[in-house]
Amino acid sequence: MNVAFIMDYWSSLKPDSDSTLALIHEALKRKFSVGILHPDDLTIRDSVTSGFF
User: Fold this and answer.
1) Mean of the per-residue pLDDT values for the chain?
2) What is the pLDDT of residue 35?
3) Helical ranges in the chain per DSSP H
4) CA atoms lying within 13 Å on the CB side of residue 36
5) What residue ranges do the domains of the chain occupy?
6) What is the DSSP letter of 46?
7) Which residues contact 37 (CB under 8 A, 6 or more apart)?
8) To pair with 24 at 20 to 30 A between CA atoms, which of 4, 11, 37, 47?
């Protein structure tokens, strides 16, 4: 399974309490393919949202 996470930049994360990091860790333990996107990586065209990583 492929999973993409939209998250804040690394510099603003709090590793002790950030739930996104826990979700990413669990997805990797389950052998999912994980992609990480930042808001700047997203585009909207004709009401379709796309992200590239």
Assistant:
1) 91
2) 93
3) 19-29
4) 11
5) 2-51
6) T
7) 4, 5, 6, 7, 51, 52, 53
8) 47
First to last CA, the chain: 16
Confidence of residue 34 (pLDDT cuts 50, 70, 90): very high
Six-digit token string for 22: 């826990």
- Can you tell me the distance from the alpha carbon of 39 to that of 14, in angstroms, rounded to the nearest whole number? 18
Token representation of residue 23: 């979700």
CA 39, CA 5: separation in Å to the nearest integer?
10
Which CATH code, of 3.40.50.20, 1.20.140.160, 3.40.50.720, 3.30.70.260, is assigned to 2-51? 3.40.50.20
Token pair of 19, please? Answer: 């739930």
